[in-house]
Structures are given as structure tokens and as C-alpha cells.
């Protein structure tokens, strides 16, 4: 079977005509369908079809386990657009494992690192009601991330209480790097709210 296609077999029966001979015979049908592509996975993710996106990314990772983009896509699919602290522990651990793996595979890409920081910021706020101030390294990542990637991250990791999420929303909104605005946010002290909230 070619890497570009998948074969599906189905067994059925049919009644033969007098010309072919009487009786019932078993027939196996083979259908060749194209293998899913990464574009299909990200399109499904964009359309909030999380189960489909997870299947596509999972299938592709079997053949391409060292693809950081696929691991990022799978991690976002597993979150299903939920705030990280609304996921069960097992799912959240899987998400973080895929993001850490993606970060190791693509250390120069800002996307896996930013996604992992958003998840960790959400956990920090959930359990200690504190907002982490972006570090200088975080600000460098913000200056590297592209507008489309920023929009994808804030949509699928809705950790709105994170200062980093707010700066990514700024990038997604106007397409410009945060620059001084992000530096100012990093310097502000945020008082923890009286009531802890997941969303």
C-alpha cells in the first residue's frame, strides 16, 4: 500500500445471474482512499472539529513522530477549545507531554513554547490565583510569533487571565509584535482576585 493512500476492505454477498451461475458468492471490495494530510488536520482544528483533527494528527504521527507541528496540532485538538483547567488530569498531562515533545523537536519555533506557557499560566492561576509576568525570553517569543499562529493559540487555549494570552491577542488583532506594550505588561504587578476561577 502506498504511503499516499489507505486501503479499506469490505466483504459482502450478491446473487449471481443465470449467466454467471446461480447461488450466492462472497465478494471482497477494496477501496483506496487518500491518506489524511496535515492541512486536513489544521482545517478540522480551525473548524472546531476536534475529534476529527485528533484522529488525523494521530494517524500522521504514526508515520512522522518527529513532526513538531503535528504534535502541536494534536495537543490543541485534545484541549477541544476548553480552558486547560477544565480538562481532566489525564488529558492535560497528554497535552503538556505533546507540547514539551514539540518544543524539543523545534526549539527555534515559538509556537510550542508559547502554547505550553499558556497551559502552565492557566494552572498557576487556577491553583494560586496568581498571574505570571512574562519574562524577557517570553517577550522575545512574542516578537517572533506570526499573526495566524497567535490567533490559533488564543482560540484553542482560552486562558484569558494569562498576561501572555492577552499579549498574543494583541498580536492576533493587529498583526504587530507587542514591543513596548508587552514590556509594560511585564512590569505591572497584578493583584490576585479574591475568587479563583477557571475561565
From TrEMBL:
Residue stretches of biased makeup (Low complexity): 174-187
Disordered as annotated region, ranges: 174-199
**Bias regions of kind Basic residues — which residues?**
188-199
Name of the protein: Uncharacterized protein
The organism named in the record is Streptomyces thermoalcalitolerans
Amino acid at each position: 500500500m502506498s504511503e499516499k493512500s489507505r486501503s479499506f476492505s469490505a466483504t459482502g454477498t450478491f446473487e449471481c445471474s443465470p449467466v454467471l451461475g446461480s447461488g450466492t458468492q462472497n465478494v471482497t471490495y477494496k477501496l483506496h482512499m487518500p491518506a489524511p494530510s496535515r492541512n486536513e488536520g489544521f482545517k478540522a482544528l480551525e473548524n472546531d472539529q476536534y475529534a476529527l483533527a485528533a484522529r488525523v494528527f494521530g494517524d500522521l504521527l504514526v508515520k512522522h513522530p518527529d513532526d513538531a507541528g503535528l504534535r502541536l496540532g494534536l495537543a490543541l485538538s485534545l484541549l477541544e477549545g476548553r480552558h486547560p483547567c477544565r480538562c481532566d488530569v489525564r488529558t492535560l498531562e497528554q497535552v503538556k507531554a505533546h507540547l514539551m515533545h514539540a518544543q524539543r523537536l523545534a526549539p527555534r519555533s515559538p509556537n510550542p513554547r508559547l502554547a505550553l506557557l499558556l497551559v502552565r499560566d492557566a494552572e498557576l492561576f487556577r491553583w494560586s490565583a496568581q498571574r505570571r509576568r512574562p519574562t524577557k525570553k517570553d517577550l522575545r517569543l512574542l516578537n517572533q510569533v506570526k499573526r495566524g499562529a497567535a490567533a490559533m493559540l488564543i482560540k484553542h487555549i482560552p486562558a484569558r487571565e494569562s498576561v501572555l494570552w492577552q499579549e498574543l491577542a494583541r498580536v492576533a488583532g493587529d498583526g504587530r509584535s507587542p514591543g513596548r506594550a508587552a514590556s509594560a505588561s511585564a512590569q505591572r504587578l497584578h493583584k490576585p482576585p479574591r475568587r479563583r476561577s477557571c475561565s
